[in-house]
TrEMBL record:
Phylogenetic lineage: Eukaryota, Metazoa, Porifera, Demospongiae, Heteroscleromorpha
Superkingdom of the organism of origin: Eukaryota
Pfam families: UPF0261 (PF06792), UPF0261_C (PF23189)
Listed name of the protein: UPF0261 protein y4oU
InterPro entries: Tobamovirus_resist_UPF0261, UPF0261_C, UPF0261_N
UPF0261 domain sequence ranges: 1-32, 43-82
Organism name: Geodia barretti
Length: 87
């Protein structure tokens, strides 16, 4: 959840944002069992990250892993965690 304001003390904006974040976390914890039961999927999970130039290889590997009984979650390797050495 984006903080919107700098985390440098509490103010009316940050208090509202932190209250919303705490409520969201509490709701997810409270609903965890129902969410897990709703999926009905007991396959082991694996994750893979990919860039555009690795898409073909990751899709091929995912097919092999899914045939072996795994559920594969694919994430694109971009965004807030991408390449910290570029800073």
């Amino acid at each position: 959840m984006p903080s919107v304001v700098d985390v440098a003390g509490m103010n009316r904006i940050s208090r509202a944002i932190y209250a919303n974040a705490a409520g969201a976390i509490a709701g997810m914890v409270r609903n965890r069992g129902a969410a897990q039961a709703a999926t009905g999927d007991e396959r082991p999970l694996l994750t893979a990250s990919m860039f555009g130039n690795t898409t073909t290889a990751v899709e091929h590997a995912r097919g092999i892993l899914e045939a072996a009984g795994y559920e594969v979650l694919v994430f694109h390797a971009t965004g807030s965690g991408d390449a910290p050495w570029k800073a």
